[in-house]
Design goal:
The protein is of the alpha+beta class and about 425 residues long. An 11-stranded mixed sheet has the order 2-3-4-5-6-1-9-13-12-11-10, with helices on both faces. It has a two-stranded antiparallel sheet with strand order 7-8. Helix content is about 35%, strand content about 35%. Helix 5 packs across helix 6 and helix 10 crosses helix 11.
C-alpha cells in the first residue's frame, strides 16, 4: 500500500468510506407566546382571567408539575438521581444504557440546580396614591431542572430537560449518528460503529440517503411523541388554547466523516495540515470557507488553534460564534465538523424549519475547508510534474531532450517534418 505524501493524496486515494450527517443537536423547547413579559401578562389576565398579573397564580401549576414527575418516577420504577457538582451526566447515562434491554423507554430521571431565565413578581408603589401593586419582570434564578434520559426506537438515546419554573422552558438533545445507527439496523444493513460514527457499511449509498433523511419534521415528531408520554407542565386546556411547545436551534453540528485505510494516513494528513495551515483562521481564509464577506467591522473572533489531547492533535477554526473542528477520530477516520451556535451568523432564523437551509451551510463549510487544505498542498504534486517536464522524454520513436525551465525549444511538428515552430515553456 502506498504512503501518501500530501493532504491531496490522502483525500484522493486513502478514504475508504465517506458520508455527511448531522451529529449532535441541542434544541430549545419553548412556548413562543410566553417568552416576554407582555405574553405572560396576557396569559394570566386574558387566558386565566386573573384580575392582577402575578406569578403567584402559576405556583400551583409548578407544584402539580413536580408532583406529577415524582409520581411518574415511582410509577415507572425509575431512579431519580440528583446530579452532583461537576458530575458527568454522560457517564451516568452510559451505565444505564448498558443495562437497558428494551427497544425504547425512559432510562432514568436526573435533577440538577441550574440558572434559568424566569418571570418573577415584584411589588411597586403608585407615586400618586401610595398603593402597592404587583409587577412582572424578567429575571434569572437557580432552579431545579429535570432531565428525562430516554431511548427512542428511531433516534436512539436522547434527553429532554425541563425547567421546573414557569414558563417551563425545556431543552432537547439528540444525536444524528445514533439516529443513523438505528435506521441502518431497521433496514437490516450490516455496519460497524465507530463510537459516535460509522466505520464501515455494506451499502454506503443507503447510508448517505438515511443520513439525509433526518429532517426537521422528524425531529418535531420525536418531541410531540415524548411530550405525550412524559409529565407535561401545561394542562390540556392551555394546550387547546394554543400554548404549545415549539422548537428552535441552539446548537447544530454538521459532520463529514472520511474513514481512512490505515492510521498512518491520518497522521500524515494532520502533520501536513498543521504545518501549512496555521494561518487558515485569518479573515480572508475564513471568508472563503464560510462563503461570507468579512470586513473590519464584522463582529467575532477569527483564529486557528491546534489543540493536542495526548498525542492526537485537532484543528479548530473560529468564525463569530461558530467553529469548525477537524480531528483524527480514534485513529480511524478524519472528522471535519462545523458547529453552528447561532444561526444569525448566517442570516437564518432559529426555528427548526430552517434546518434544511442550515445543513447546506454546515456541510459546504466542511467541504471548502478540505478544498483549501488540498489546494495548499498541491505544490508537492506540482513539483513532481514540473521535474518530469525537465527530463528527457520518448514519444514513440523520437526522443525529446531534457529542457531547463523557460528555455526556448525548437520543436518539430511530427505530422509535418518540414514545419517548425518555437515554443516557450510557461508555468
Amino acid at each position: 500500500m502506498t504512503i501518501p505524501r500530501s493532504v491531496a493524496d490522502v483525500i484522493r486515494d486513502h478514504v475508504v468510506l465517506e458520508y455527511e450527517a448531522i451529529d449532535r443537536m441541542y434544541l430549545n423547547v419553548y412556548v413562543p407566546t410566553l417568552q416576554t413579559v407582555g405574553g405572560m401578562v396576557g396569559y394570566l389576565r386574558v387566558h386565566r382571567g386573573q384580575r392582577f398579573a402575578s406569578t403567584t397564580a402559576v405556583a400551583p401549576m409548578t407544584e402539580t408539575f413536580i408532583h406529577n414527575i415524582e409520581q411518574f418516577v415511582a410509577g415507572e420504577g425509575l431512579d431519580l438521581i440528583t446530579f452532583g457538582k461537576g458530575q458527568r451526566k454522560d457517564d451516568v447515562t452510559q451505565k444505564y444504557l448498558r443495562k437497558f434491554k428494551k427497544n425504547e423507554g425512559v432510562l432514568y430521571v436526573g435533577k440538577a440546580q441550574e440558572k434559568a431565565r424566569i418571570m418573577r413578581t415584584e411589588r411597586r408603589r403608585d407615586k400618586r396614591t401610595g398603593a402597592t401593586y404587583p409587577w412582572i419582570v424578567q429575571s434569572t434564578a437557580m432552579v431545579n431542572h429535570y432531565y428525562f434520559y430516554c431511548v427512542d426506537e428511531d433516534f436512539g438515546p436522547f434527553f429532554l430537560k425541563f425547567c421546573s419554573y414557569f414558563p417551563y422552558n425545556a431543552k432537547l438533545c439528540i444525536n444524528g449518528h445514533e439516529y443513523l445507527k438505528r435506521q441502518l439496523a431497521k433496514w437490516g444493513v450490516a455496519f460497524e460503529a465507530l463510537d459516535n460514527g460509522i466505520k464501515s457499511c455494506a451499502d454506503p449509498a443507503l447510508l448517505q440517503r438515511l443520513a439525509d433523511g433526518l429532517t426537521a419534521e422528524k425531529i418535531d415528531r420525536l418531541l410531540r411523541k415524548w411530550l405525550r408520554r412524559l409529565p407535561h407542565p401545561f394542562p390540556a386546556r392551555d394546550r387547546a388554547a394554543g400554548y404549545r411547545y415549539d422548537l428552535s436551534i441552539l446548537q447544530a453540528e454538521f459532520s463529514l466523516t472520511q474513514v481512512l485505510d490505515q492510521p498512518v494516513t491520518g497522521r500524515i494528513f494532520f502533520e501536513e495540515v498543521i504545518r501549512e495551515n496555521l494561518d487558515i483562521g485569518r479573515p480572508s481564509q475564513v471568508s472563503l470557507i464560510f462563503d461570507r464577506k468579512i470586513t473590519g467591522r464584522t463582529p467575532g473572533r477569527f483564529r486557528t488553534r491546534v489543540i493536542t489531547d495526548g498525542v492526537v492533535p485537532s484543528l479548530h477554526i473560529d468564525y463569530k460564534k461558530s467553529r469548525i473542528k477537524q480531528y483524527h477520530k480514534l485513529l480511524e477516520a478524519l472528522r471535519t465538523e462545523t458547529t453552528i451556535n447561532d444561526t444569525r451568523d448566517f442570516g437564518i432564523g432559529r426555528r427548526i424549519k430552517n434546518l434544511a437551509q442550515l445543513r447546506k451551510i454546515g456541510f459546504a463549510a466542511n467541504r471548502r475547508l478540505l478544498d483549501v487544505q488540498r489546494i495548499s498542498h498541491d505544490c508537492f504534486i506540482g513539483e513532481a510534474a514540473f521535474q518530469d517536464m525537465q527530463k528527457p522524454a520518448i514519444v514513440g520513436d523520437p526522443r525529446a531532450a531534457s529542457l531547463r525551465f523557460a528555455d526556448l525549444l525548437l520543436a518539430t511538428n511530427f505530422r509535418n517534418p518540414t514545419a517548425q515552430r518555437t515554443v516557450r515553456l510557461i508555468r
